[in-house]
Structures are given as structure tokens and as C-alpha cells.
Amino acid sequence: MAQSQWTIVSYILMAVFLAMFGTIGLSRWITIQQSHGVTETIMLGLLLSLQVTTVILLFVFTRVNRTQWRYVPWRLSDTHGITIIGLTIFLIGTFVYDIFSIIATTECLDVYRHFDEKYDEKIIDLVLLIFKPLLYMSSQLLFLMWCNYGNIQNNPNIRKTSVFIFAAATNLFFWIYSFLFESKKIFLQEDPEYNITKLDPAIQKHANECLHEESEMQRTADNVEIYLYPVQMEFCILATSLLLHTWSHIKHSRMRMHDDDDMIDFPADNGDGGPKDDANGQHALIRRNNGQDNEVNGNNNVIGGNDADPPPVHEVKCYGLLWIIAIMLMTLMFTFECLLYVETFYSKAILIVISIKTLYDPSLAIVCAYVIYKLKKSGKMKRYGNIDTECVIMLISSLGLVIDVAFTYISVIPTIIYQNVDPNWANECNDLNIIHDISNNDESVRQFLIISVLSLVRQSFKLIQVMLQVYLIIILTSFYTGPIDNWLSECLGFILILNFGHWLSDSIVEVKFTNASPVQEHYFGCDNWLVIVHIFFTLAIYFRFHSVLMLSEHVRRNKHGHDGYQRLDGDNVQEREQPVNNNDHA
Predict the structure, then answer these.
(1) Does the pTM exceed 0.85?
(2) Residue ranges per domain, the chain?
(3) How many whole angstroms separate alpha carbon 27 and alpha carbon 186?
(4) Domain of life, per the record (predicted)?
(5) Less crowded by CB within 10 Å, the N or C end of the chain?
């Protein structure tokens, strides 16, 4: 898809800021003792400036395009509306977590005042903790609601769309900062030494607790963070997905503005057979109009009247059976995934979860392959398509799942071949004090090998279904021109629901609970696997949710007869017809 110059500038700025964040973040481990405080202060200042700039740009965009707003009612089937509900929940969770962090920070400000670098860092951190939920996240949520219910994504007259790219990039940078500096117990490092002997003896105990984050309120904030840290990551992922999705729709609306089937613009016809002659186009228009007149008059015997109409297609009756199966599979998998947290049930639940997932991913792969086959046989495929930026971003995010498969192969194959297994594998990382009902070590090793084999089978099908799913979404978005009938809509809904189940599982269990992947954890080590999970599962979570968002657009084509949202009457031809009064299109 053709890009504007400002979009290219946005890409360049995003790459530059990403490189800056990566370089500053790497210095955290290169020179921990020398520049850790300075590094974190620079990151905080840069992140705060980006968030302030994003809020200003969102406000400017809303002011510039306020006359383009068209109210669209909210529907339960509206995935954008459901996403906004999710964003609201994550915003509340972030606000609750930030309250504890603010209280813990303000209680220790009298201590930090004696250490200049620490004090500057905590002041900026305090400002960021207040600004983030109250202005940055909330303004982004209100902006997405304004875009969603104002039908902005289908309006080709929207200007300054680079704000969507900038806001998405800021969300990415916010996640990088949160991952590098706020994730407790992920990166092991030595505590910096502080000279507290110069302080008043009455506050030395309090100072020691504050500087080493061992005060009662800081421990409470850390305990809250264990449960609420993922909500920040989920907010960034969902908001980024919706921002890029809206931006892509605006780009497509601009392209459709010049391809409106209802308008035919004839060039000057000189009658000399030159390049400006458009007799063929006029004859085509005459044939089309005659065909419409004959159809209205009931004259079906005229050649060209109804002969061009396609024969009636047999429509498969569907009663939501696939949706019911998908909901049952998703509920079953997610229920047993949550039971992994129960110490007395872990050894049984992990086998059941792996077995369910071994059926879960092949089901996705089979339905994806079937839908692709039906689309190919429909005869409604364009030979050449235009793969837009949204599909490219989805393709890149799918690499997170490919990385997961690669790490699984690396860990599972040597385990199966050499069978070098610790019988106490379930308690290796001390996340749980698991009570086993296994009477001997051989049974424990056998259970671990069964999990390894099932993981190998499941990950192989996961790789297949990810490739098929990406291919399917690209086909639907860029190549398929036919209708979405009931049966196709039900198959897409099946894929959508199972993807939603994966998103819940990855967000709530896989990222937080390392024992959910015992083979990889046993092979790579507890701390290493925790770092690996936080790196690639962010891409995986984004892919799962964004695929749900894109598939829902095609499912709604069957429910509402259009691509998710009704196109604006007249707005797609404003530049060509130049209407006198914009209120005519309201």
C-alpha cells in the first residue's frame, strides 16, 4: 500500500527511539554499579516526554478531525467495543497498582533526598506514576472510544494519521521500560551500596529498608505487582492493536475513495479513436443499465438481462455447533490452566492441560486448512492482492509463537533422547511446594517424558496452525472478494474463539507461572526461562489478540452485510464532488 511521506517519517522516528531505548536498556547490565541510577533516570525522563507528546498529539488529532465524527451505536458483536471494555479493566488495575507504588515512594522521599541520583529518579517516577493512569492511559482510552463510536476508521477525509503510529510506538516503548525496570525478580543484580552512616541514627533503619526496598509498604506494592503487573502489558498490547487496526482502516478508506463502484467518471471523448476515447466504457454502462431495466420489468428473456447473474449457491445451514465446541474447548483448557496454581492438583493438571492443548492446536490447524481450501475453490480470489501494513505487523508478531516452538524443540528433543530428568522437576524453581502422589522417582520421570512427547506434538501443530492462520487472514484481507456466508462465518468464529482462549492462557498463566512450561523451565533454568518468556510472549500475545480483532471484522461481514462498520454516505466522494455543505453528510 502506498505510504505518505509523514508515515515514512513516523517509521524512521519509531526506529530511532527504539534503538535509543535498546541501547540505554543494555547499559543496565553492562555497567550496573556505575550508571544504573542515571540510566533509569534517563529512561524515565524520555518515557515521560513521549507520553506527554502522545497526549498532546491525540488532543490535536481530535480537534482537527472533530467535524468528521459520525455516531455509530455500540453492539455486543463489536470487537472494538469489547476491547475498550478490556482496556477499561486494565486501566483500573494499573491505577490500583500505581496507588500502592505512589504511597511506597512518598513514604521514602525523606530518605531519597539525601541521595541526589536516587531522589531525581524517584521524583520523575512519582510524576510518571501519577501521569500514566490519569492522563496517558485514560486519554488513549477516550481517544479510541472517540474513533470507534465516531466511525473514524471508515472516513477517508481524516488527516494527520501518523498520530496512530506515534501512539503505538509509545506503547511499545512503555512496555520496554516496564520490562527492563519494573519487572521484579526477573533480572538478578547486586544491590548498589549506599552510605547511610551520614544520616541521622534515628532514620538509619528506615533508610536501609527504603534503599533496599524492604519497607512494609514496598513489600505490599511488590505483592500487588505480582498480580497486577501484567495489566500494564495487556493495556499496551490491546491499545497498540486497536490503534494500528484503526490506522489501517483509514488507509483502506482512502484507497476505496478512488474505487467507488457507484461513480463512473468518463474522460473527454474526441471520437478519433485516440487514447481518450471511452466508447467501451460507455457501452459497458449501457449494457449494465439495460440489464437493470430488464430485471425491473421482469423481462428475463433478453440477452444480458439476468444471464450474467451467478447461479444460486447452496448455503450450508449452521446452528452454532462449531462455536459451542470452541467455547467448550476454551473453557476446559483455561479451567485446568488455572488449576496449575493449586499445589495439590498440579501434577495431574499439567498432564490434562498438555493433553487438551495437543487437541486444541490441531483443531485450529484443521479448520484453518478447511477454510483456505473453501476460499480457493470459491473462484472469488484475486490473482494479485495488496498486503497492507496491518498484515505485515501481524506476520511479524507471529514470530513470537515461532520462537516459542523453536525453544520447545531445543529443550524437548534432548530430554527425550537422553532422558536426563530430575525426579523433583516440579519443585525445581520453588514456585510451589507441590505435594506429589507419585510413589517413586521412576514414575515421576515417566510423567515428565510423557509431557515432553505431548509438548513436541503440540508445538509441531502450533507451528502449522500459525502459518495457516497468517495465510488465511492475509487471503481474507487482501485476496478474497466473495461474500462471507453462514458456514464460513461459523468456521472463522471457531478460529476466533480458540485464539481468544490462547490469549487468555498466555496472558494470565504462561507469562506469570513458569511451571506451566516444565520441560523448557527444566532445560533452560528458572531465571533464564522467565526472561525468555517475557521477551517472546509479548509478540505471541499481540498476535493472538490482533488475529481475534481481524477475524471479527470478517465474521461481522456476515452479520451486518458490510466490513464491520457502515461506510459513510457521501464521505468517500467528498474530494471529487466538492459538496457545498458538509452537514449534508451528517
Answers:
(1) no
(2) 15-256, 322-560
(3) 17
(4) Eukaryota
(5) C
